Amino acid sequence: MRRLHKLAAATGVAAAVICATVQPAQAYTPTVKPQATTMAVSDGSTFFIGGDGKVYQTGWDVQAASGATRATPTALAGLPSGVRAQSIAAGYHFVLVVGSDGKVYGTGVNTEGQLTDTSADHSQHLKSTLTPLAGLPSGVSAKAVAAGYAFSLVLGSDGKVYGTGRNTTGELTTSMPSLFNYKLAPLAGLPSGVRATAIAAGSYTTVVLASDGHVYGTGYSFLESLTVPNSVKKLTAFSGLPVSLGVKAVAVSYANVVLLGSDGHVWVTGSNQNGQFGLGTTDQNSHPLARMIPGIDQAVAIEAGYDNVLAVNKYGIVFVTGANYGFGGLADLITTADALRVAPAQPSKALAVEVASSDSDTLVRDADGVVLGVGSNSYHQLSGTGDRSALTVLAGQRISAYKSPAVSGTAKVGSTLTAKNGSWSVKPTAYSYQWYRGSTAISGATSATYKLTSADKGRKIKVRVKGTRTSFTSGTAYSPATGTVG
Questions:
Q1: How far apart are CA 486 and CA 420, in angstroms?
Q2: How far is CA 80 from the centre of its chain?
Q3: Architecture of domain 4-393
Q4: Contact status, residue 247 vs residue 209, Cβ threshold 8 Å
Q5: Which CATH code for domain 401-478?
Q6: Which of 284, 304, 369, 473 could hold 251 in an S-S bridge, CB 3.0 to 4.6 Å?
């Protein structure tokens, strides 16, 4: 594990692609998406959204000043009752959450205003519960978030990008003070009439996809990752991108900008010091012109890790190029695209659909909703103890219904009702049932169907479904009641 002070020079925080079309109740459906917004990785901490709409954390506890750690997934405190997490992003010891109420919530370190601070002396250096960020105009809701080392970005429903926190390299543009900012304010540089459609953040860099089809960047342009030398201090269009690229998604790290083209290929600018370009070589040169990674096609999701690039293809395979931070069985420098392995005997056989990464850990979520991790486990960020050399399921994940079970059939004596299982955060491998007459369990009614009897006449019937899967915490959910049985 790279110690925390290392990040003062170059943070391992890497933001996953953040798109504006996240559907909160659909976080775990087995469909592939071009973004990973239900998981996030920071230095020593991992986060993921559960089927109950809560954000779960393992590892370094960002809500505690004591440096406590969590060895199993623990829900972050602070989301109001009834508000579900829609998407998340993690910076250096802080995390951002888009709530179903359209607000942005943040918790953790706030020394530079990355979570906003309306106190007179800006003394709110730690927010120990998820707390709304200040500054979005009235009527503007949050569509997505991204997090850099010590700054936060919000994509507003008005098509503007708002930022707060550190701005030492222009990551928040000249529209804000060059040091610390304590309230969300719009970033400068997008042409008049152009709306932001997606946002991403690296350590000291902001990148925006816009409605005019261009990619814009501001902040630190390490090895010309923003296609320009040095730093820029307003959102500036990338130059030299292939005309036909049609960028669908973007991810940013300290050293690279990664682009997902409409053709399913992955393109990279910036550093190839560790083989991030997948060309079989390394070099110390600047790379302002995007290069396509050979060996990865039909990609549907991308991630910029610390000195490496990851992509998920339509067949659910996760590829990586660049530095090896804990990937067992792969070279120290992965200079041509190689696939991540799942550890033997793991309860995950489904295709990968999401990936998130930092300087020491990588998370993958499969189409069954299972979260796996590989890399350092120094702070229990991958649950339990011991580093992981191949993708291993995080212990303590809960099976939760995000779409309630239902009952089909006619509510009439003599008719048979059938339980519909609903949809679950982690797909169960087995279900069990209990039918209820009102609030009373019906003796012996424990199959997926139930034939209505005379005892049910004039009553309402519902079913409880329990989902189970080996190595996971079981979940239960109730269907709505039928109409009165005739």
A1: 22
A2: 20
A3: 7 Propeller (2.130)
A4: yes
A5: 2.60.40.2700
A6: 304
With H, G, I as helix, E, B as strand and everything else as coil, classify residue 6: helix
Q: Which helix (H) or strand (E) holds 412?
A: none
In this prediction, residue 11 carries a pLDDT of 35
Spans in the chain with pLDDT lower than 70: 1-36
Q: How many residues does the chain have?
A: 486
d(CA 12, CA 90): 11
Q: 4-393 with 401-478: one CATH topology?
A: no
Cβ–Cβ under 8 Å, residues 425 and 416? no
Q: Residue 37: what pLDDT?
A: 85
The whole model's pTM is what?
A: 0.90
Name residue 471's beta-bridge partners.
none
SS3 content of the chain, % helix, strand, coil (to 5): 5, 45, 55
pLDDT at 36: 53
CB-based contact 156:141 (threshold 8 Å): yes
Domain ranges for the chain? 4-393, 401-478
444: CB partners within 8 A, 6+ apart? none
